[in-house]
Queue: 2 jobs
Job 1
Amino acid sequence: GAVVSQHPSWVICKSGTSVKIECRSLDFQATTMFWYRQFPKQSLMLMATSNEGSKATYEQGVEKDKFLINHASLTLSTLTVTSAHPEDSSFYICSARKRTSGSMRSYEQYFGPGTRLTVT
Amino acid sequence: QKEVEQDPGPLSVPEGAIVSLNCTYSNSAFQYFMWYRQYSRKGPELLMYTYSSGNKEDGRFTAQVDKSSKYISLFIRDSQPSDSATYLCAMSPTNFGNEKLTFGTGTRLTIIP
């Protein structure tokens, strides 16, 4: 397996403030990380694909100016929720793809534990 | 029609029973198939990863892929209360490093002691 961590695991902030969430691949390097959002009892919604050293690719309907993504190194991607509002309250999960061993190039996707954001 | 369909459940079975979880899909380009387990308020955990059609077994878990029917299954033998979680199927056409996964909605499973 592989380990992906997120920090913080839970954050409460006031409306209008910005919150930064970190995603780290602890035992492997990841050129690509993904950020998801998940509402209670719903599946994962992909927000954006984070590429090391380049701009993130956002999914349709996701505001790139509101959800700032930076992938500055092969083990760290950050998601900043700017000017957060109560409707941004959600569970944010990152994932990273690890290249598997063997002759055939393939990648397995591992998820972080998630960050619960509550905006009051 | 969603690309991936998964019965959301909830599904409740007694401890020790065999559990069958399924997904159907419409995109014939999908070749890589995964099952994830997600406990409440946690990130998904990769359980099984398969390529193309066939079976793959890992302990009490067996993943089956039938590409001709566009149908994948996860079987859990000798189910335990600790297996209670939401199970998500996921798939992609390629396995390149930047490939996005398409997820099912997840099936909530409860194993009754």
Job 2
Amino acid sequence: EVQLVESGGSLVQPGGSLKLSCVASGFTFSNYWMDWVRQTPGKSLEWIGEINTDGSKTNYAPSIKDRFTISRDNAKSTLYLQMSNVKSDDTAIYYCTRAGTYWYFDFWGPGTMVTVSS
Amino acid sequence: DTVLTQSPALAVSPGERVSISCRASEGVNSYMHWYQQKPGQQPKLLIYKASNLASGVPARFSGSGSGTDFTLTIDPVEADDTATYFCQQSWNDWTFGGGTKLELK
């Protein structure tokens, strides 16, 4: 059974940093591109970024580019999202997702909540 | 960005057929996907590439469309289908619709 479990979400002050993790199991992690998607309190979904199978290539949404960094450790089957210089607009549930063949998201973790507030 | 527009809410009776629409601001070929999200849960993939049923999804769910207009159909609707349904395109980067909240009468 495919499982994705995020952790690391918390309350953080504007301008601060936070690192999210996602542990994967039930599939060969190193064979899949992985993505982060977030959901705002108003329930809108926004794609954050993606990473290729060996971690050598990443793509980001313009709204977070140069502030967030996606990385992975295939030996630990773990995906990361390093967030820096966070803003109130970054308040959201952050989901780790597995990318399907046509760039849909075929499995999602339960999410981890990030709240940016002073 | 490619904007996806969905109706905000629908109400139907169990046993009926319901169609949920998603309109793209520009053509996305057939790269449209549908998700179901129940309260307090993460989204779940239902349909990929416009009309392909994801693994384990009941055959009551189906998808159609291409270009700019797409439809998710549930027939017949069951009580457990109460949820918000999102469309997502992957032809021009990745964007999501605002979601359609399905309520049962």
